[in-house]
Structures are given as C-alpha cells and as structure tokens.
Design a protein that fits this description.
A 10-stranded mixed sheet has the order 4-5-6-15-7-12-11-10-9-8. A 3-stranded antiparallel sheet has the order 1-2-3. A two-stranded antiparallel ribbon has the order 13-14. The chain is of the alpha+beta class. It is elongated and about 65 Å long. Helix 3 packs across helix 4 and helix 5 crosses helix 8. The chain contains 9 helices and 15 strands.
Length: 325
C-alpha cells in the first residue's frame, strides 16, 4: 500500500488549500480557510494536508483537543476532502497515512463527522468504507430533512392552508443583505426563550461571513405591513440550499409567514438546486428527535437522510495493510 506524506496546515498554504477545496468533488465553501478561521479563537487548528511528493492528494479540516483530533468542530460537516482522481484504494492508503501520522504525534483518537452525500458534486463515500475497514465506531447519527427538488414534493394540507393564509394576509418576502432585523428581533429572543441558547453565529460573525461569501450566505425575511415576522438564513452550496436558521415571531405563526416563505424558496428561488436541506431535528447527540419540528419539515415534502459521526483509534492504521488483494 502506498505511503503518503502528511503534514499540518500552515498559513502559507492558504491559497493552495482554497484552490484544492475549490476543485474537490466533495468540497464546499465551509472548507475555505476564511470560513474555517472566522472563529479561530475558539478552536486550535489541526488541519492536515496529504501529499504525494509535492502533489496535494487530500486535506482534512480539523482541530485538536488534548490527545484527540476532530473533524473541525466549528463546521457542520467534515472529513477527508479530495478530487475525483483519487480512487478508492488511494483513499484507503491516504486514510492509513493520516492515522499513522496522528499516532506518531501522540493523538489517540480521531473523530469524523461525515459530509452528507447530497453535498457531494460526485459520489464520494470512499472514506465511509475506509472507516469500516479501520474498525471505526459509529458514535452519533443525525437525521436530516431533505427535499429532492428534481421530484415533485407532496405538501400536506396544513402547509397548503398556511401558504394560502400567507398570501391572503399579503405578507412580503424579501431577500436582504443584513441580518440585524432577524437576529435582534426574532432569532436571539426565540432561542433564549425556547432553548436557553444563543445562535451559533453572533451577529458580527454573520455580517463578516456575508462579506466573505456574499453568494453563499443569504437572508430571507417575511414582513407584515413592513414589520418582520419570520425569516431564514440559507447557506447555499453547489448542490444544496441549507437552512442554517429558521424562526418566526411567537404569536405570528398563524399568519402563514413561515409556510409561505418556504413554499417560495422551494418553488421559486432554489427550484433548480438539486436539494433543499432543512437540517436536523435531533437533540442529545442524535439520540432524541424533536417530533413536531421533524413533522413540519416532512409536511413540506422532506424525507430523511442521515449524517454519521465516527471515532477511530489511530493505532488501527496497521489493520489497513491487509485490505488490498
């Protein structure tokens, strides 16, 4: 089995890293260094580059905590990023080289949260197979509510009624550049009241990310007589429109604003996108399901795919030696 060289990412790799991610078959803007580093005060970066002599073969966006390395914990998904030229046997060899490098550097465990298949530009589940071979342990599984926009979605009667209400109430849907209204008047208040939590991204972070990725990060608000009543923040990749945040003013849901908003996004704004991803309805590390939230997403035509999280001992690198025959 071929041995690759593995090393840590350095700031001087910035341009090469971004160029490599841009042509990968499973890369998205979340792996751009500008996105990864907007919250670098919270994470100790441990991103890896895999090389065949001087040629870049793969990258692993990651951070380190103690003697464990993680798929970057500031990102929704992660894992090994590579292009279509890297075949299955080479991915296995790449993964073995990473485990060996980590083991040599006193890292005991590697935790990976895989990229959901809908985000791939081409099939890219070679790492899933390599994890199985390395005897990785499945430690978490989240359910994502996804609409395949190439198929006609079945919308429940309750959602149709909400869409009609929204139109009857003459609600306006607008794409806006700033996040202040949605963050300050809806999102922060709702998360604090319902979940005693804060948005993952602060308002200043979202404004910064919008400046960096204006075509990928989009905000859609719903207004009643010029006053915001609901909204959603969309992270758009090549194949997926993903809802990062969804929220409405409590007591205003009967207006039909959220139903109208998502009907508009699904049938108009993103109708030519392969997939629309509402994200997870899970809590407690995937072990509980918010049934009401899940049902609402399904009533708009979504069905389930899963995102898996694995832990593998770096000492298992040697079991990959006997795989190829």
């Amino acid at each position: 089995m071929k041995n690759y060289t593995v090393r840590l990412y350095h700031k001087t790799d910035y341009e090469n890293w971004n160029a490599f991610v841009g042509q990968a078959k499973n890369g998205t803007f979340l792996f751009h260094r500008d996105f990864m580093e907007y919250h670098n005060d919270r994470f100790r970066d441990y991103s890896l580059i895999v090389l065949d002599n001087e040629k870049w073969v793969a990258v692993l966006p990651a951070n380190v905590v103690g003697n464990e390395v993680f798929s970057h914990q500031g990102l929704t998904y992660g894992g090994l990023v590579y292009n279509e030229k890297l075949k299955l046997a080479s991915v296995i060899a790449t993964f073995k080289s990473i485990l060996s490098f980590l083991n040599d550097n006193k890292i005991k465990n590697l935790q990976l949260k895989l990229i959901p298949s809908i985000y791939h530009q081409k099939p890219a589940e070679e790492l899933n197979y390599a994890l199985f071979l390395a005897e990785a342990k499945l430690i978490r599984r989240d359910s994502l509510a996804v609409i395949d926009l190439s198929q006609k979605a079945s919308i429940a009667s309750g959602r149709k009624e909400g869409i009609v209400k929204g139109k009857k109430n003459k609600l306006d849907i607008k794409e806006v550049y700033d996040f202040e209204e949605f963050w300050n008047e809806i999102l922060i208040l709702n998360l604090a009241h319902k979940h005693q939590a804060k948005p993952v991204h602060s308002l200043s972070e979202m404004n910064k990310l919008k400046e960096l990725f204006p075509e990928n990060i989009r905000q859609f608000n719903v207004y009643e007589n010029g006053v915001i009543v609901a909204g959603t923040t969309i992270f758009e990749t090549q194949s997926v429109a993903h809802c990062q945040y969804i929220s409405g003013i409590e007591g205003k849901n009967e207006l039909g604003g959220i139903d109208l908003l998502f009907h508009h996004l699904i049938t108009e704004v993103f109708k030519n996108k392969p997939f629309f991803d509402f994200g997870t309805s899970n809590e407690n590390q995937g072990k509980t399901l918010n049934n009401g939230l899940s049902y609402w997403k399904e009533s708009l035509g979504a069905s389930t795919i899963v995102q898996d999280f694995y832990e593998v001992k770096t000492s298992k690198y040697n079991v990959l030696d006997t795989v190829l025959i």
